[in-house]
Design goal:
Oligomer: single chain
Shape: elongated
Structural class: alpha/beta
Helix content: 40-55%
Distance between the termini: 92 Å
Largest sheet: 9 strands, mixed
Mean pLDDT: 86
Length: 608
């Protein structure tokens, strides 16, 4: 009682004496048995689950919880759900099923044991660090989901950050600047919020465990015993092992991925320096193609699914059959097989470089290594002979492209040098028909002192496959302005990109368009000396090709001169533009050496 109150309090009866005075007293320095002397906290006085009220108030059951207590208990439960969900989260979209979360995570048991053994301050620090790390691992799991859905592989911590910028550019072209900006800001905020929330949730759970130390210790021991028993017996009541270590497995997988990536750099650099044809003299390269115009053409996302998927195939195979007949009527013959691409769903440049270098290039680090060196690409072999003019038709290139020297291209025509004045079609800067007509007008149709070797990249079949250009009269192409009406009448990318069935249908239409553009161009402008090699760079994304699709792409060689196809007779490829299901399948990096050998090149290796 305050001193002022005592001095002015009116006199009254003396206070009653206690009826049962204590018979014993604690020494002045004694500590109540319930005190937590290890860190100065009183576990009896604090109860996170009851909003800071005495734990004794909660012993009477739920009726002892006030509104604040219920809120506190709810936050604690949500914290547990967040942490357990993050510990059990898979890294593929197809694995997001309820049974994945009906398991016991070993990391939670070990974490609880560690936190219970620590004093207050170290416990809080450890919990915060562990929670932040768990949030970061969760972000990586979501990145894995995205990369597996689009590229058929997990996210690489060392190599793949630059691809996020490419993804942003793709979204901008496909869905507009506003949508892209909103999605980007939302993704960044979500990632930061996830890191903060998992850290706070882990700290809250650590405090809750400390405030209920005796019960928490028993529960941890029981959970550990159950986990060991389930692991030993292999119990799977929900279709998956009840004993889980998902977070530890994910962390180990990421660590191995980083380790393999770092070790691969030196090994691949050594591999790239050893070249079977690297020291072949110019006069011993490609002697059997001298005098021919050789055109290597990549069709974006032209994969095996285009020919074999029951929804996609009917339109594409009908086009391939009709094009084969039309080309044969014009005097051309074709042979076709399969190549297994080094990439899937995207990163087309990896497929291009694998095909032309004869090296397996399945990541950005390998691509940078090979394109910055002097390895002999197939296209560079033509330039090395001195017998061909070499050009690149690259409507997808919209910035500096130093790789042109690696590919041996004397001149590159990018998106800004082909004279196109029409609209973009989502990511694709111009329709394939226009790009091919520009190639004819600016390069192929001109008088030259030497035959031509060209690398042509067709982009109209790039996702999201909306809007898709349509064929127009070749005589009316002009500067491409007439495609404005075609683009406006096309479908909206946002209506296609989120619908798997629509994506498959529109993908098939885009492949039909690209193949038709190329084969009509050949019929219209090809000569007795034209040799066309065309192929897909990779399969389309899983939304179109399916979760377990192969990485195979069709490849065809078309020519009028029968000797050109006789040189590859032992390849056993299928007649026509459509490879048979059982046609030979090679890895894409095998093509360069087979092609060079078939057309008379003499191996002369360079050594590391």
């Amino acid at each position: 009682m305050p001193l002022f109150t005592r001095l002015h309090q009116p006199p009254g009866p003396p206070p009653p004496k206690p009826s049962n005075p204590p018979t014993t007293a604690l020494p002045p320095t004694a500590t109540p048995p319930s005190a937590d002397t290890s860190d100065g906290e009183s576990s009896a006085a604090e109860d996170v689950g009851s909003g800071g009220k005495s734990s004794a108030a909660g012993e009477g059951g739920a009726a002892g919880l006030g509104r604040a207590g219920w809120v506190s208990l709810g936050v604690t439960v949500l914290s547990a759900v967040l942490v357990l969900g993050a510990l059990l989260l898979p890294n593929t979209v197809t694995a997001l099923r309820p049974n994945r979360f009906a398991r016991i995570p070993a990391e939670a048991i070990v974490g609880a044991a560690v936190l219970l053994a620590l004093p207050r301050r170290p416990r809080t620090v450890v919990a915060a660090v562990a929670g932040t790390a768990l949030g970061a691992l969760t972000v990586l799991n979501f990145l894995d989901m995205g990369f597996r859905s689009y590229l058929g592989r997990g996210f690489n911590l060392v190599l793949d950050w630059s691809l996020l910028d490419d993804a942003q550019s793709y979204m901008k072209d496909s869905m507009g600047t506003a949508t892209t900006l909103t999605a980007t800001v939302g993704a960044v905020l979500a990632a930061v919020l996830l890191l903060v929330l998992t850290a706070l949730a882990t700290v809250r759970l650590a405090t809750f465990l400390a405030d209920h130390r005796q019960r928490a210790t028993k529960a941890t021991l029981v959970a550990g015993t159950v986990w060991i028993t389930c692991s030993t017996l292999g119990l799977q009541p929900a279709g998956l092992p009840l004993a889980a270590d998902r977070a530890a497995t994910a962390l180990a997988s990421q660590a191995r991925r980083v380790q393999v990536t770092l070790a691969d750099e030196a090994a691949f650099a050594k591999e790239a320096r050893a070249d079977t044809f690297g020291a072949t003299p110019p006069d011993r390269l490609l002697p059997d193609l001298r005098g021919k115009d050789v055109i290597f053409t990549f069709i974006e996302s032209y994969g095996r699914s285009a020919i074999e998927d029951p929804v996609i195939a009917p339109g594409v195979t009908a086009t391939l059959d009709a094009s084969t007949e039309s080309l044969e009527a014009a005097g051309y013959r074709a042979r076709s097989g399969w190549l297994t691409s080094s990439t899937y769903g995207g990163s087309s440049w990896l497929g291009h470089s694998t095909f032309l270098s004869g090296l397996w290039i399945d990541n950005q680090q390998r691509y940078t290594t090979v394109t910055s060196g002097d390895h002999l690409s197939l296209t560079k072999a033509f330039r090395k002979t001195g017998a061909w003019d070499t050009v690149g038709i690259m409507p997808g290139i919209q910035k500096a492209w130093p790789e042109a020297d690696f590919y041996g291209l004397d001149k590159v025509y990018d998106a800004f040098q082909l004279g196109y004045q029409g609209p973009k079609f989502s990511w694709s800067t111009m329709p394939d028909q226009y790009a091919l007509e520009a190639f004819q007008r600016m390069v192929h149709g001109k008088q030259r002192d030497k035959p031509l070797m060209a690398e042509v990249i067709l982009t109209s079949s790039h996702q999201p496959w909306a809007p898709i250009p349509t064929m127009v009269d070749w005589e009316e192409l002009g500067d491409g302005s007439l495609f404005g009406a075609v683009q406006r009448d096309g479908k909206d990318a946002q209506d296609i990109i989120t619908d798997g069935t629509k994506s498959r249908a529109e993908y098939g239409k885009s492949i039909t368009y690209s193949v038709t553009s190329l084969t009509q161009w050949l019929e219209r402008y090809g000569t007795e000396d034209t040799v066309l090699v065309f192929l897909g760079d990779h399969q389309p994304i899983a939304r179109v090709s399916g979760d377990n699709a192969s990485r195979d792409v069709p490849v065809s060689i078309v020519a009028k001169d029968p000797e050109v196809l006789e040189k590859i007779a032992d390849w056993n490829w299928t007649r026509g533009l459509q490879p048979a299901p059982d046609a030979p399948v090679w890895k894409m990096d095998a093509f360069r050496d087979r092609f060079l050998t078939a057309y008379g090149s003499t191996p002369r290796p360079t050594r590391d």
